[in-house]
Amino acid sequence: MIRVLGGLTRTCGGVSRRELLRAGGLSLFGGVTLPRQLQAEAVSPSSRPAGRIKSVILINLFGGPSHLDMFDMKPDAPVEIRGEFQPIASSVPGLSVCEHLPRIARWMHRATLIRSVTHTYNSHNPYAVLTGFTGGNDQENYFTKRSDHPGIGSVCQYLGMEPPDMPCHVYLPAHPGYSQGLRRAGPYGGYLGRRYDPVFSVCDPKFDREFNQDKEFYNPIAPIGMPRLPSLEDLPGVTIDRLNERHSLLQQIDRASAQLEARGDAANLDLFQRKALALLTSNRARAAFDLSTESAAIREQYGPSLFGTSALIARRLVEAGVTFVAVTTESRGGGHWDAHSNNFGMLKSFNLPNLDQTATALFEDLDRRGLFDSTLLVIMGEMGRAPRINRTAGRDHWPTCGFALLAGAGVKEGFVLGGSDRIGAYPADHPVTPGDLVATLYHLLGVDPELMLPDLTGRPIAIAHGGMPITKILA
Questions:
Q1: Given strand 111-117, what is the order of strands in its sheet?
Q2: What pLDDT, on the 0 to 100 scale, is given for residue 28?
Q3: What's the CATH architecture for 51-225+304-473?
């Protein structure tokens, strides 16, 4: 049941004003505090740009997915390179993918595959993926800090690309950071200010047995459940699946809102409280988080995993006008791709089948709803994996070669850019940096990737850090 903590001073409708505003955090904008999300008048230097696309869904395969065991297989290489999996034909002539991605294989004619993503930032932070900056190191950039470069969503919000009654950028199922135990650099407002931080949900996945995460880090135990929308203070007790049980509270909130207006009390609330109240009473915002309207068939298509339900919510958010939605696969239990040990067991038993289901559910759903005309889906990790299999049947970090899979508005269909050398160690042609990928997203959203914003010292910094749009993949 919903827990709404607050004082005892109540409105006539039976809900305290404090509870009202906390409920706003519960029902809409989880991990974001009102001062951070709603402080000060909008600083948007311009109205929303006109781009080729309206929204981006980025699925970050946290930990570094093995390109060699997914989209850049080397069946003729020695066994210590090629690994255990077999390639299968895809719907693109001459392109093979892993045997454990059969559904994605049938959709490759609708996607663009880049097999030459390369950089030197050897870290699990999504900092490079979400900002395009690759000059960091873990000593300086492991944890988020005020001087960080802003993420894509933060820049979009700064530029006025926030839809009415909805946030500009949302992260599901939680903020990146070892099962919500820390805050990794990447998705935040950085030197633009905390008001441009994203909205985060939180998660509390369920498992079929108890386990010790530290001892079973390389044993993929499937996380089942949905993101939970926390209160302003990350209060527990709310799941998206239970929103349809909240009609009574929402009716109380509606009555309380009307009574505040009738008595003139709403005018006494400060600007940001009034904006929060408007967000709370927005039917569009409520509807975006209410999965009770989805058919059983659609929910089954996405599956019960934490990442499947997050992907379904991502589709609902872009349908409601949110500009940038990211789904990270970092969570307690299975889902991470940091396969230093048991690489093939992790991939075969959970990661690949789960991605195969989740990605194709999104492909089909976006296509069926006509959202492929306005939404770009991006699937990638922060690095690839090492060509040589280690002594514990794992692959180690390898940022110098990886992949990105893009589908939807703005990019070519059935197109492959780049490739790697004979063992998948380095790009053989058309190297692409995270800055180039970020620049491409900005370009498609109608934002000049060479735009400069001042950091904390007043120094102008290009938002894509020198990256340029990848024109060869653009439709």
A1: 199-200, 169-172, 324-328, 55-60, 375-380, 402-408, 111-117, 415-417
A2: 35
A3: 3-Layer(aba) Sandwich (3.40)
